Amino acid sequence: MLIIGIDGATFKIIKKHLKALPNFERLMAEGSHRSLKLDMKPLSAVVWCSMFTGKPPEEHGHWDFVVDGKLQSRRDIEADFIWERLEAEGYEVKALNIPFVYPPYNYNCEHTPLNFGLSLELDELEEDRKQLLAKCREILQNPPDLFIVVFDQLDKVQHFHWGEPVVLEWYERMDQVVGELAEYDEKMIILSDHGFRERVEGGEGGYAPPGAGPKQLKGDHDDEAILITRNVRYPIRRITDVYYAIQEEIRR
Ligand SMILES: [Zn+2]
To answer: Which tens digit of pLDDT belongs to each residue from 34-76?
Structure first.
């Protein structure tokens, strides 16, 4: 089974530009898709953690990348993740670049993203994306029972370039990524942790990526994530259902 996370991906862009995104169009037509309305704060740390622990933030207790000035790590989270759970049942699982902590978390594989995942410039983000895709290819030469990867670059592109043509170029790049990776497994989930919208000046702007500093922010998170599934029968209606869907589908 394959889980492809795209941090910050929104159907607002995808559905408007399906002709430029043939793999999204095909995968949405082949399987099923829906918006996932968040019932929690649209922050990457919180949402990816809830997805892969099956617990709402009130239970997993992981509210941000930094708490009381301390960068949070896996050890600060008192909950089991899906990869640990399934490995204990004998499945081979790899998780790559999951941004619920910084730098993004890996399980049973090693990867250090460019600039430890703190890249903000477009050329750096593109290099980071390419390196991550190369790592996916390497892992998928011998596919584990479950492979989870999150591409986190689009989030930053949208924060700094929302409304610019380069955003659609990045969706086209992600379209190629999902098209290529989808070849590796029939059972698949593509999803994001939140959507995006124009940043409202003076409004809540609390979702700047780590390391953003004083750079101008044009986009901000919204509370509609994307969900595209293929050969997944378990109904996913909320973020925490993702954990149970993976568990049930792997056992089938
Ligand atoms: Zn995010």
So the answer is: 999 999 999 999 999 999 999 999 999 999 999 999 999 999 9
User: Is 0.85 surpassed by the pTM of this model?
Assistant: yes
Expressed as residue numbers, the domain containing 185 is 2-251
Ligand 1 center from residue 54 Cα (angstroms): 17
**For the chain, what is the domain count?**
1
- What's the 225 CA to ligand 1 centre distance in angstroms? 10
Q: How far is the CA of 7 from the centre of ligand 1 (A)?
A: 5
CATH number, domain containing residue 87: 3.40.720.10
Q: How far is the CA of 8 from the centre of ligand 1 (A)?
A: 5
**144 CA to centre of ligand 1 in angstroms:** 25
Asked whether the predicted pLDDT for residue 216 surpasses 60, the reply is: yes
Task: Decide if pLDDT at 140 tops 60.
Answer: yes
Q: How far is the CA of 196 from the centre of ligand 1 (A)?
A: 9
C-alpha distances in angstroms, 186 versus 31, 143, 183, 223, 233? 10, 12, 7, 29, 13
